[in-house]
């Protein structure tokens, strides 16, 4: 927010015209309604009758739906920022809440109904209602996780072939996070595909809706539960004839209906999915195939965006020689010449033509700790960390979506993502284990076509990443679309910008945006927003259910839980669904070594620097290590530096850091450079060279925002690079910080 806004009491017809963008007649009518809302705020939620709080006034404006999606964003800015003009920014103490739960709304949420059913028994006379008793109920879940999970898992469509002996076994002290659901046997993909009574899923329930890019005027496509199951089982049969049980099989393609079918089929048949994002360069694809020891890969011939074709199969070919099954991006036939060992999707499916029942497959049942998916998270050096998801991981993912995104029967859940990122599997399982409908757009989410799909598909829960929201707002491509059926938004991947979130929430009369922050290794978010608490843009109101953590000072000592502070997060080690091993790295070294104990319990590393506000809310301040978050992708500084060091003969050494803009938003990549003595290359030239090298060798979506040439880097006595000093140089240089 660059403009300075005065008090809401100073907003008159003139300001509504000049700043808010309304014509005179509209401005006069709006001003009259605004005064009524302010007077309503004066009567207050507490009935005080005078001196309304900022919250009272905004609550009344929101309740009256005074601000409409069709109003110019400048009007939304004028009113919101004027209401909270006397509050400090989110990054300091007081939080400007934009959404407040009502008791009626709270009792209709999944978690609210759950608390009403179990709260009186678990908390006794201390229980009052879902809003008043939320913090107490959450504390109980942290102290008694086995009680919470014994009840919460019944809310999901989990069908055990053999039930667990108990919820949590902590007798083996060598297992840091305990053993969850020991003895349980199931197939988590089968749980997604069977009709059940709770949550209610019938054979003819619509479980997937989708639309192809460019088909805006055509009806939305849909799949029923039975149709999905038939397609998945056909693919499972084809897989069984081609691979051996336990083989790792990669998926490198957009998250289409076909990709979802393939994912479920791999798991149903007892194989392991290897998740690879479709944006990766050949080198990154090769690394993931090598680390996972994949025996095959599903991919597309091209990725089609805006009518243009972008090669994908050729990148897979350049990466590895393992067998590829190639799906056509358009039509029924692939548009490229395949290698001898590769198969087209059509030929692959025809391999089951001889079966009498190709659409039936008997699931492979496995123990709860069997690996079903290998995902990747960047390390600080070398190869990305290979993180195994077991059958427990989807349960945690779906349960958190049930509790915080409030996924219910009848919801249509859309989140532009990819199966190569953790959000892809989370979205898939959140829908199919909760009985919600998965909404997929086969095209770019940056364009109006995506927004029209959201409108036409009746999306009720829309997930985003902040960079997407910024693009929608800046291009105005979603103007005129009706998103008012959306009952909540969700956001993850990078830091949110307050003004972008203001725009997004206003598209549906200020519905809440559930901020989510977690990790691939956790299978979920450790902090989120909650529909049982007021929400503030860009802030997190609670830890997830059963999740405990402390914020550590520079000496590794936990701050008191009620004290505003800033420090590194230390997660409690009893975390259902979190991984307890890595396939290509030392788990103890990565997540435990160097972390202190708290009340006798070993803490687990996550890496975030967290700020706790006076309200008890949380704001993420960055990473404790040298990993940076670019466009929602956690990336190693060392990886970027290695590429930049080779990008120009003029470079002696580089140092990569990421900086969050002053007004919030995604982190920006800044490269410090020490040049060779004879070089006179300019920063602008280096910026182009670095960006091209990073995009070719690491990720085509990354971009260098600024290059600064220096004589030498600040280092410790042991020659360790002081990135903190470099960040401070950027923050205190007004010329540079203004350009980020």
TrEMBL record:
Recorded hits in Gene3D superfamilies, A to Z, give: 3.30.300.30, N-terminal domain of ligase-like (3.40.50.12780)
- Give the matching InterPro entries: AMP-bd_C_sf (IPR045851), AMP-binding_CS (IPR020845), AMP-dep_synth/lig_dom (IPR000873), ANL_N_sf (IPR042099)
What highest taxon heads this organism's lineage?
Eukaryota
What keywords would UniProt list here? Membrane, Transmembrane, Transmembrane helix
Does Transmembrane count among this protein's keywords?
yes
Report TM segments: 260-281
Keyword Glycoprotein, does the record have it? Answer: no
Domain (AMP-dependent synthetase/ligase): give its ranges: 201-569
The region annotated as signal peptide is none
Task: Give the protein name, as stated in the record.
Answer: AMP-dependent synthetase/ligase domain-containing protein
């Amino acid at each position: 927010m660059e403009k300075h806004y005065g008090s809401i009491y100073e907003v008159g017809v003139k300001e509504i015209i000049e700043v808010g963008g309304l014509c005179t007649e509209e401005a006069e009518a709006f001003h009259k309604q605004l005064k009524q809302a302010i007077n309503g705020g004066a009567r207050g939620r507490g009935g005080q009758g005078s001196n309304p709080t900022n919250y009272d006034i905004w609550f009344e404006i929101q309740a009256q739906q005074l601000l409409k999606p069709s109003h110019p964003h400048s009007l939304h800015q004028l009113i919101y920022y004027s209401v909270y003009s006397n509050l400090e920014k989110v990054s300091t103490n007081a939080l400007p809440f934009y959404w407040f739960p009502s008791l009626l709304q709270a009792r209709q949420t999944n978690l609210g109904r759950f608390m009403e059913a179990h709260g009186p028994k678990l908390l006794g006379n201390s229980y009052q209602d879902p809003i008043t008793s939320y913090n107490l109920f959450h504390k109980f879940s942290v102290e008694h996780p086995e009680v919470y999970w014994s009840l919460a898992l019944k809310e999901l469509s989990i069908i055990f072939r053999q039930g667990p002996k108990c919820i949590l076994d902590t007798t083996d002290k060598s297992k840091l996070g305990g053993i969850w659901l020991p003895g349980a046997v199931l197939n988590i993909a089968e749980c997604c595909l069977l009709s059940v009574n709770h949550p209610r899923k019938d054979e003819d329930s619509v479980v997937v809706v989708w639309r192809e890019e460019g088909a805006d005027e055509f009806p939305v496509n849909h799949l029923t539960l039975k149709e999905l199951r038939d397609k998945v089982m056909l693919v499972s049969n084809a897989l069984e004839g081609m691979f051996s049980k336990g083989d790792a099989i990669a998926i490198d393609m957009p998250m289409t209906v076909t990709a979802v079918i393939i994912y479920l089929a791999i798991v149903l048949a007892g194989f392991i999915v290897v998740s690879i994002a479709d944006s990766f360069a050949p080198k990154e694809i090769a690394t993931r195939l090598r680390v996972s020891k994949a025996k095959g890969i599903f991919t597309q011939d091209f990725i089609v965006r805006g009518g243009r074709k972008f090669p994908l199969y050729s990148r897979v070919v350049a990466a590895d020689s393992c067998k590829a099954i190639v799906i056509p991006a358009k039509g029924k036939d692939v548009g490229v010449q395949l290698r001898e060992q590769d198969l087209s999707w059509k030929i692959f499916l025809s391999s089951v033509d001889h079966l009498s029942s190709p659409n039936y497959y008997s699931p492979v049942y496995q123990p709860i700790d069997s690996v079903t998916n290998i995902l990747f998270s960047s390390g600080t050096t070398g190869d990305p960390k290979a993180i195994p998801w077991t059958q427990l991981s989807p349960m945690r993912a779906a349960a958190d979506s049930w509790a915080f995104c409030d996924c219910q029967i009848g919801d249509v859940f859309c989140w532009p993502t990819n199966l190569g990122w953790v959000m892809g599997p989370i979205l898939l399982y959140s829908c199919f284990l909760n009985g919600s409908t998965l909404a997929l757009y086969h095209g770019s989410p940056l364009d109006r076509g995506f927004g029209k799909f959201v409108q036409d598909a009746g999306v009720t829960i829309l997930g985003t990443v902040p960079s997407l929201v910024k693009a929608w707002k800046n291009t105005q491509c979603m103007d005129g679309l009706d998103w008012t059926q959306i009952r909540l938004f969700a956001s993850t991947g990078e830091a949110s910008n307050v003004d972008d979130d203001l725009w997004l929430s206003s598209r549906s009369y200020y519905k809440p945006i559930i901020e989510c922050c977690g990790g691939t290794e956790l299978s979920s978010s450790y902090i989120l927003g909650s529909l049982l608490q007021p929400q503030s843009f860009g802030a997190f109101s609670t830890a997830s259910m059963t999740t405990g953590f402390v914020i550590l000072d520079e000496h590794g000592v936990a701050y008191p839980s009620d004290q505003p502070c800033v420090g590194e997060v230390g997660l409690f080690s009893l975390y259902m669904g979190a991984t307890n091993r890595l396939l290509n790295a030392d788990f103890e070294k990565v997540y435990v070594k160097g972390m202190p104990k708290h009340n006798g319990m070993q803490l687990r590393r996550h890496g975030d620097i967290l700020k706790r506000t006076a309200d008890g809310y949380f704001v993420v301040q960055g990473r404790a290590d040298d990993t940076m978050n670019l466009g929602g992708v956690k990336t190693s500084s060392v990886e970027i530096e290695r590429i930049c060091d080779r990008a120009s003969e003029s470079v002696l050494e580089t140092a990569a850091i990421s900086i969050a803009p002053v007004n919030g938003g995604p982190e920006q990549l800044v490269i410090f450079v020490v040049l060779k003595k004879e070089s006179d290359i300019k920063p602008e030239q280096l910026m182009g060279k670095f960006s091209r090298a990073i995009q070719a060798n690491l990720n085509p979506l990354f971009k260098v925002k600024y290059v600064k040439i220096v004589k030498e880097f600040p280092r410790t006595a042991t020659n360790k690079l002081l990135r903190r000093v470099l960040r401070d140089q950027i923050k205190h240089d007004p010329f540079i910080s203004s350009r980020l």
